[in-house]
Write a structure and sequence with these properties.
This protein is mainly alpha-helical and 135 residues long. The protein has helices at residues 2-15, 22-31, 56-67, 84-95, 111-120, 122-126; strands at residues 72-73, 80-81, 98-100, 107-108, 131-133. Strand 3 and strand 4 form a beta hairpin. The longest helix has 14 residues, at 2-15.
């Protein structure tokens, strides 16, 4: 439990890059074989909430969420999503498919959470054969 908590906290630290410490964080991340998210270009800022985004397309998707526009619909339950990846993740609830870490056997529905897990799971780095698993 403590080891898992430590891994989660380590992952959260990588998402928070304080400007004054950015170079030390980057050096530490490189030394540990980790990556840090790229900086965001302020040209793509939401005029509604001020959130900064990576591109004009992600800004448009973000604005659609404020407007309640969800163009990707689940064919099973009708729930709407802002992008295709969220719809694909949602469909795993209906199909029972899970993304499984071959290293520690932990299973995920969301692709992003699975990829984040792989970035810090020591057991998964020993075994690169991670793939979807149907239940």
């Amino acid at each position: 439990m403590l080891n898992t908590l430590s891994k989660c906290l380590t992952h959260i630290i990588f998402d928070i890059v304080v400007v004054g410490f950015q170079s030390r964080v980057l050096q530490w991340a490189q030394m540990k074989g980790r990556t840090v998210r790229a900086s965001v270009d302020s040209r793509f800022q939401c005029g509604i909430c001020g959130k900064q985004l990576y591109s004009s397309s992600t800004l448009q998707r973000h604005i659609n969420i404020h407007r309640g526009i969800y163009p990707y619909q689940c064919s099973v339950c009708g729930r709407g999503f802002s992008n295709t990846q969220n719809l694909q993740d949602h469909m795993r609830h209906h199909t029972g498919e899970r993304l499984s870490c071959d290293g520690c056997k932990r299973q995920f529905i969301a692709k992003r959470r699975f990829q984040e897990h792989l970035s810090y799971c020591a057991a998964s780095s020993e075994n690169d054969n991670n793939k979807p698993m149907a239940e």
